[in-house]
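Input record, target 12 of the design panel.
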């Protein structure tokens, strides 16, 4: 129980500082400043002066009362988040309300509380139901109502812990473990907001300029709340969030991949059966029996299905199913895709169903438009589910891109393959399961040998190289990767094998670095093929000793650019020069 609570608290803290809550911070701050300042008012006392005399002496009486407003906001968030996350689906279904009712309800509450700050009469009307409560709860109870509304707007924030909670609530598998996880997550997510609310409260209590213009600040706070409610309603804030680096993704990924976390979260979402997946040795040539395949869950959108309807394993019973976890910018996944397409073409009519689960490695891969473009470009025709919150990823206890789970016609996982390679072995297992399901099936000759695809890098190939703060491990030059800062770096004149260095000024993020002034990269690699994930607008000039320079034009969302393509591996050092405004993510090698 303690472990589960700590996991929930950690997941909540990560969510509480993630980009998805940034639109709430101005609301929380202004809400903290809009408490009553009468606790600091002065009481007028007349001493020995005739009642008709206008001369009075003012004496300050008492001291500032404790401001409970920030705590009420956070309490409201915790209560509404916990209740509606676990029981929201049941409540909405019972009342016949649409799925987005809670979100719109939260936006209405946010707007009404904002109007209450602008128009005091409306504010008193909002608080009227609370007047019969004890005195400590009587003043500014609009704060609690505001917290209730914000709690419903908190639900969309991503992360593996929240995914487990959401799935548990949606499927009705709510036990004491889920309640502990949910409440501890809510506390963790609310703590950073409490800091902002408390900061606003202290300003309102201690800054004289605020006390002198309290009415104006309340109106400004109300206007901010209404404006942000409109922005949230029309998804205006999405563009801002997309433009920011997902600085918590590294922490979220570590939580998702942690064995203790996976073991604790699986029972919380009613997924005890997935523990049997440990019976399969990844990469084994022999088929095994690894328990029932977990159902696809927590997906946002489906591609290549009738009317966008989600694919389910229950409907696929009787077919051999290959579940492929992938990410569209992952070069390893791209090299595996032609094999999947060949198997789909050769065996679909004989009972094979491939289902792609797109579990993003980077924040930009969460875009449905980007994913749709990748599916079209790769000519993928089998169903693909968008697993942005890693719910299905976590249910399968997966850790790799790409990963393949082979499920027999009865719904039992029979084989697991992590990474590239062994395509002939996987095809033999597919054929074996197809024959077991239908002994009369007339299978064609194996198709793996006919697939034209990039070969896997031979032994000694430079491993994938990440440039950003959260995952860089082989930076070898002057300058330190410091997140959310522009840093001056220096190239290494004698770059060691399989390392890189940065030169010039770079804006450092957790998922990429962005060129600013004199930005360069020096890379020492061994490979036949070199790929680079880039985004933004500009050019990259590549220089390799003994070869003519080459300039690559970069435009738009993150994409994979081929830098080198030659017949054989070789050891080289290249220097790349970037125009300002180009974001660099990774180097991949083949």
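The sequence produced for target 12 reads:
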């Amino acid at each position: 129980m303690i472990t589960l609570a700590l996991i929930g608290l950690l997941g909540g803290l990560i969510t509480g500082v993630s980009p998805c809550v940034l639109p709430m911070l101005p609301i929380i701050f202004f809400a903290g400043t809009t408490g009553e300042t009468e606790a600091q008012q002065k009481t007028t006392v007349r001493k020995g002066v005739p009642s008709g005399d206008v001369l009075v002496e003012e004496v300050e009486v008492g001291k500032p009362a404790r401001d409970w407003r920030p705590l009420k906001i956070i309490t409201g968030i915790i209560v509404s988040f916990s209740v509606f996350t676990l029981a929201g689906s049941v409540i909405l279904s019972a009342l016949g309300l649409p799925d987005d009712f809670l979100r719109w309800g939260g936006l209405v509450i946010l707007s009404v509380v904002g109007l209450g700050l602008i128009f005091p009469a409306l504010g008193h009307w909002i608080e009227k139901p609370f007047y019969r409560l004890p005195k400590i709860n009587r003043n500014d109870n609009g704060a609690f109502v505001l917290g209730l509304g914000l709690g419903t707007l908190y639900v969309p924030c991503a992360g593996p812990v929240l995914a487990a909670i959401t799935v548990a609530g949606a499927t009705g598998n709510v036990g004491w473990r889920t309640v502990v996880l949910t409440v501890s997550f809510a506390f963790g997510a609310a703590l950073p907001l409490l800091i902002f609310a408390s900061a606003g409260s202290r300003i309102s209590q201690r800054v004289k300029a605020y006390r002198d213009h309290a009415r104006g600040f309340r109106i400004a706070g109300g206007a901010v709340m209404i404006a942000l409610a409109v922005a949230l309603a029309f998804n205006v804030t999405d563009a801002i969030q997309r433009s920011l680096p997902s600085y918590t993704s590294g922490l979220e990924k570590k939580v998702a991949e942690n064995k203790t976390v996976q073991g604790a979260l699986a029972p919380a979402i009613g997924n005890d059966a997935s523990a049997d997946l440990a019976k399969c040795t990844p990469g084994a040539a022999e088929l095994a029996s690894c328990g029932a395949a977990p159902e696809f869950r927590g997906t946002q959108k489906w591609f290549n299905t009738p009317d966008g309807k989600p694919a389910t394993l229950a409907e696929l019973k009787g077919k051999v199913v290959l579940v492929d976890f992938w990410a569209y910018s992952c070069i390893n996944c791209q090299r595996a895709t032609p094999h999947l397409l060949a198997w789909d073409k050769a065996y679909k009519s004989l009972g094979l169903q491939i289902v792609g689960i797109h579990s993003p490695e980077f924040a930009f891969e969460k875009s449905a438009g980007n994913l749709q473009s990748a599916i079209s470009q790769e000519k993928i025709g089998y169903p693909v589910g968008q697993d942005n919150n890693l719910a299905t990823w976590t249910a399968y206890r997966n850790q790799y891109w790409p990963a393949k789970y082979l499920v027999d016609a009865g719904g039992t996982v029979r084989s697991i393959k992590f990474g590239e390679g062994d395509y002939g072995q996987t095809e033999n297992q597919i054929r074996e399961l197809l024959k077991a399901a239908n002994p009369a099936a007339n299978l064609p000759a194996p198709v793996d040998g006919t697939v034209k695809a990039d070969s896997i890098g031979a032994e000694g190939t430079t491993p994938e190289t990440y440039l950003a703060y959260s995952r860089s491990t082989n930076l070898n030059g002057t300058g330190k990767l410091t997140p959310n800062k522009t840093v001056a770096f220096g190239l290494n004149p004698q770059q060691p094998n399989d390392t890189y260095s940065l030169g010039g000024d770079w804006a450092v993020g957790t998922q990429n670095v962005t060129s600013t002034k004199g930005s360069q990269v020096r890379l020492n690699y061994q490979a036949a093929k070199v790929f680079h994930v880039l985004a933004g607008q500009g050019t990259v000039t590549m220089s390799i000793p003994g070869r003519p320079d080459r300039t690559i034009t970069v435009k738009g969302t993150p994409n994979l650019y081929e830098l080198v393509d030659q017949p054989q591996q070789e050891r080289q050092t290249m220097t790349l020069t970037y125009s300002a405004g180009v974001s660099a993510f990774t180097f991949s090698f083949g």
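Residues 2-37+63-243 form one domain.
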